[in-house]
Request: fold
Amino acid sequence: MLNIQASDVLSAAEYPWRQVAVNVAASGLEIRTNSGENRIINFVKAKIKNAQRTMANGLSEDLYSAGTATNQMGGLQHIIADGSGSVQYGVGTVGGINASTFAFWRNQVFDASVGSVTPSATTIENSMMLPLWLACTRGMDTPDLIVMDSVYFSYFENSQTSIKRYASADSAQAGIVSLKYKTADVVYDSSDSGMPASHAYFINTDFLELVAHKDAWMEIMPELKSVNQDGIVVPILTQANLTCSNRARLGVMHS
Reply:
């Protein structure tokens, strides 16, 4: 007899919008001093450009964060969490789902200290990356992007000295330094971007997405004039969050 009971194939994860703003302020004195045909720069435009760079740097740090700051999006340290102690999977509540209760919502973890592995060029591929790759793989679902800090990327590149495989020419032209591990691009990111030390994230981009509001992605708002001061303020807004639909296919390697 066939079991005709319906299967629960979807579990809803909900991610609240997070909004950040950078305010560009300029006094009337500064604007008038840098006006006219002989001005060296467009003062307000230069300030806005620098503010956009500041916001981009802040968003980069947020993307790697644990999401613990006020109104901060939950980054990779939140969604692809480190294990604690001997636990080789990430728990915590992500998208409103508690991974301590629901095992299907736990990301994969390889902690070198638990496995008694000393990270090096000779151990990083077979002893560290391969076990995590296998844990993150299910059928055709495999990681397609691996992001490493300087320590792990150096180990991995040195391990590939005789068989280096670089990513596509398009990646090189875009200024991305990347190698290949199986079907995944392996890229380096610095601690200045927010990447935690001695970490590597195994990402399946089918299940991880940065969702941004169409009306508030580094959106330059109309300038606001002060009613009691000689100056203007130009807000720059971003409304977004990092979302995940399948934590079990994502992994982190650390020591």
Summary: The first helix runs from residue 28 to 33. Helices lie at 28-33, 43-64, 76-79, 124-136, 150-159, 169-173. The chain has one domain: 18-254.
